[in-house]
Sequence to fold (131 residues):
Amino acid sequence: TAAAAWVWRRHAQRTRTARESAHSAAWGELRRRHDAVVRQWADYDVDPAKAIRYPAMHDPGHPAARPVVRALRTAGDEGRPEPGGRGDGRDLQRYAEAVARLEHTFDAAERELGAQGARRPARHREAAGRF
Fold:
């Protein structure tokens, strides 16, 4: 009957919408985690005290920073789905792995360089309205 067909289409539409919403939420969470590491890494360049105290964090030739630079590049590449693509499950999985690897390598670099406790808000973010 027409009512059953309508119910079936409506159910399929709601299921598809829920799946797309969950997919978008997963991408959003990964981007948030990725951006958090990028901000933390950038603080070592932007905050003069951190830049002076931990110069190796931005030295791509330093053994502790080299994997971070590679992981940053990989996560950035995986975070952009193919042009015209919607970022399917495989793209999401690759991006999730790249972000996890970035978080791990960044934490390892901080530990190796003794900067683990240096995670405080940079002064350039404390003043409201500066950016």
